[in-house]
Inverse folding.
């Protein structure tokens, strides 16, 4: 079957010499995914709550976001320089910027400049770099910073300016710039927390939360006409960001769904049987930092379990703790503490929800997890 | 139909050569036929320097059961046994043959009527013709088709998935010569004593091949199974799982799941051996890559130096950065263009210099893409973390010995961590440390 005629013109064929050949292990192709691209897409999803926050709280909020991001990146650069790590490569992976934006969206809109500064140092140095850098931290750096700031500067961290549209006032963008004119208000959650505890026959009284929990008010809370930190007030923006994150395979969809679902169920059950103890579950969903945390903070890849079942356990745990703190705890908001607590349990959750490798029999206890 | 997990490489490169018809290569000036072209013991040389050999003449005899015969691809003079660059990076022994252009061939072995011949006779013919697995593992075919008596085989699966990017050799073979493949499947089914569970799994991106095979499949009692395009669909464990739903037990072989898996190219070679009495001396190879001038599929004789195959494809447009024998996900990178084509060389792939990927140990961001991609349901990130700390015992607990080294994890990792490389290292260390049974 072989032909003996040679029909190749020898002169115009360029043959390889083999001098540039690289010999390395397979695989020899890799996908175009990069850590920095992932961080870039997360920033894109964060842009929506950020934009909503700036619309509601004015240019001062934009300034806070900018400051926090710059301080975070700078803090990482300083640490890398001191620790002898490659500065440019570490900054360019984008994780410090993402931490900065998430932290900023957790701060009240009109904080003085030193709050982002301390927050950045707490988030990057204490929350991430002392453990070894990206991927090694057990706790979400933004949550670490927020909790640290809350405990260190409680007054500043609980002063909430009124957003545009809250008292039916729509000051122009320019008028909204300075913090001096900002009227402070109380967030719905903090009001719920300060209402007197009910005992006796009024335990089941519904009228306790009527002033802050009614369908019209829920609608207002939903679109963002309430006090709160920069990113947590406008729920539609957060939901849009969540859709982006899930579509780009950046977060595990089980975490936000199970987290929010658990809070709804727990508060719903308590509210059904004892309406005087806590407002309705819908109130809990649209107030406070729950939606923002469920979408952007609990889902942080580094501090979240790796398997799907693990993520469900993690999210349910967060939901239970958040509800318990909100209903019975002294703090009005329980989100940050719940995330930190469950972050600490993630290694155990990973171990408990380990996959069954292909070709191995299910474990004897009947726990054939995927 | 498919298995769980797996990845979808973005650039599959098959468009470079999937419409190129198989061309036959012209005679070259020199062939270096490697001795070790099969798993198991290499055959023993049966010719001396200066001997004149005809095409298809035996030049090396199988040494033992798990070994394969080797036949001359051309008529010419044996110059001697020399050392050539081997596909694994170590020099390999090869028989150098200078063709004389006379084209003298050995008499073909008598054609067998495969429908009536004894299975043992068919098996002997396959062994005589030096058939090995042509998908890459090059396991002697007659050994695979003789499972131990306590393993009952009820399914024969032909691997037409060709899931590796860039490779199109099996695709063109199924498209241009489907009967060879079908007859080979039927012959192997007869040897194994299987009547109605002979399947050919083909990925959906080869829909034309599926149609062509389906035209005649019923005649030979073979069923064509379209499979989802997913890597590594062609891995035999995943193929068995996709088609039959069974899982090969960890550390076991397909026969432990009552299946035998063979490559479609091997099936075509079986047809050549049984119907035409010809031993295995040539195979279809895809010569491709974006730096190759005319990528395509060629029928190459074993012992063809790769540089000649590249010349057939019109040479290169720029100096390549990597020469890979096989596919880009599991193939072996070579350091020399003088390495010869073997019975299991499915592809010659040249990558440009800027695509010669160098993996670096970036930080693991625990994104979980490797876990989503691993077809064996392992956690490559956890294994790599253990290996980086020299904890090979932890790596073993994470079942690294089950790793197929398919490359799916390293492909998807956004931090470009060398996951497969870590797995290979861990497996080598564990084998070294494990007491020999």
């Amino acid at each position: 079957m072989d032909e003996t005629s040679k029909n190749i013109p020898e002169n115009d064929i360029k043959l390889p010499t083999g001098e540039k050949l690289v010999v390395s292990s397979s695989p020899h192709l890799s996908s175009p995914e990069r850590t920095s691209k992932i961080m870039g897409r997360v920033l894109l999803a964060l842009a929506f709550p950020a934009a909503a926050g700036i619309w509601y709280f004015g240019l001062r909020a934009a300034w806070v976001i900018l400051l926090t991001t710059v301080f975070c990146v700078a803090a990482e650069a300083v640490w890398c320089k001191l620790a002898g790590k490659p500065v440019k490569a570490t900054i360019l992976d984008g994780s410090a910027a993402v931490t900065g934006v998430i932290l900023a969206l957790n701060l009240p809109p009109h904080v003085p400049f030193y709050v982002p500064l301390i927050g950045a140092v707490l988030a990057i140095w204490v929350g991430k770099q002392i453990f070894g850098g990206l991927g090694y931290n057990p706790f979400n750096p933004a949550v670490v910073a927020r909790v640290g700031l809350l405990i260190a500067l409680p007054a500043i961290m609980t002063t909430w300016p009124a957003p545009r549209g809250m008292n039916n006032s729509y000051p122009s963008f320019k008028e909204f710039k300075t913090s001096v004119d900002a009227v402070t208000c109380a967030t719905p959650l903090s009001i719920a927390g300060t209402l007197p505890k009910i005992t006796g026959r009024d335990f089941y009284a519904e009228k306790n939360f009527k002033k802050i929990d009614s369908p019209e008010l829920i609608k207002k809370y939903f679109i963002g006409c309430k006090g709160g930190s920069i990113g947590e007030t406008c729920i539609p923006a957060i939901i849009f960001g969540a859709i982006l994150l899930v579509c780009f395979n950046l977060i595990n969809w089980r975490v936000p769904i199970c987290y929010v679902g658990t809070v709804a169920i727990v508060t719903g059950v308590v509210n059904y049987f004892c309406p005087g103890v806590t407002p309705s579950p819908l109130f809990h969903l649209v107030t406070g930092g729950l939606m923002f945390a469920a979408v952007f903070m609990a889902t942080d890849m580094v501090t979240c379990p790796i398997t799907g079942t693990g993520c469900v356990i993690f999210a349910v745990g967060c939901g239970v703790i958040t509800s318990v703190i909100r209903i019975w705890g002294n703090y009005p908001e329980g989100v940050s503490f719940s995330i930190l607590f469950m972050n600490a349990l993630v290694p155990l959750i990973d171990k408990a929800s380990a996959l069954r490798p292909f070709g191995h029999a299910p474990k004897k206890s009947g726990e054939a997890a995927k | 139909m498919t298995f769980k997990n797996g990845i979808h490489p973005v650039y599959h490169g098959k468009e470079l050569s999937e419409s190129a018809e198989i061309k036959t290569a012209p005679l070259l000036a020199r062939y270096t036929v490697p001795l070790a072209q099969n798993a198991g013991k290499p055959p023993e040389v049966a010719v001396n320097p200066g001997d004149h050999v005809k095409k298809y003449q035996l030049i090396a005899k199988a040494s033992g059961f798990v070994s394969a015969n080797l036949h001359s691809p051309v008529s010419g003079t044996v110059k001697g046994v020399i050392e050539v660059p081997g596909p694994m990076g170590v020099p390999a022994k090869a028989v150098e043959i200078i063709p004389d252009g006379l084209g003298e061939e050995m008499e073909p072995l008598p054609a067998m009527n495969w429908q009536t011949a004894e299975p043992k006779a068919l098996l002997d013919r396959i062994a005589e013709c030096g058939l090995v697995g042509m998908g890459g593992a090059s396991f002697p075919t007659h050994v695979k088709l003789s499972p131990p008596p306590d393993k009952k085989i009820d399914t024969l699966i032909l691997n037409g998935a060709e899931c590796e990017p860039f490779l199109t050799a099996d695709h063109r073979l199924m498209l241009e010569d489907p009967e060879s493949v079908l007859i080979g499947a039927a012959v192997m089914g007869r040897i194994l004593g299987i009547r109605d569970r002979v399947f050919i799994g083909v990925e959906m991106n080869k829909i034309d091949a599926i149609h062509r095979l389906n035209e005649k499949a019923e005649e030979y009692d073979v069923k064509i199974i379209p499979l989802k395009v997913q890597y590594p669909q062609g891995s035999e464990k995943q193929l068995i799982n996709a088609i039959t739903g069974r899982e090969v037990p960890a550390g076991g072989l397909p026969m432990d799941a009552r299946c035998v898996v063979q490559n479609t190219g091997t099936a075509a070679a079986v047809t050549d051996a049984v119907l035409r009495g010809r031993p295995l001396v040539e195979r279809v190879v895809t010569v491709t890559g974006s730096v190759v001038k005319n990528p395509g599929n060629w029928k190459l004789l074993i012992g063809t130096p790769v540089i000649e195959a590249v010349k057939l494809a019109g040479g290169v447009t720029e100096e390549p950065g990597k020469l890979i024998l096989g596919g880009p996900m599991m193939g072996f990178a070579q350091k020399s263009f003088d390495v010869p084509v073997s019975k299991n060389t499915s592809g010659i792939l040249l990558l440009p210099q800027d695509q010669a990927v160098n993996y670096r140990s970036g930080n693991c961001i625990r994104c979980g893409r490797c876990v989503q991609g691993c077809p064996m349901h392992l956690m490559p990130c956890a294994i790599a973390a253990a290996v980086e700390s020299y904890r090979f015992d932890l790596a073993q607990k994470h079942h690294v010995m089950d790793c197929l080294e398919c490359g799916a994890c390293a492909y998807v990792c956004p931090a470009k961590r060398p996951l497969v490389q870590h797995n290979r290292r861990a497996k080598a260390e564990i084998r070294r440390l494990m007491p020999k049974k």
Notes: Chain B has 13 helices and 17 strands. Chain B has two domains: 1-24+110-356, 369-433. Chain B has a mean pLDDT of 89. The longest strand of chain B covers residues 76-85.
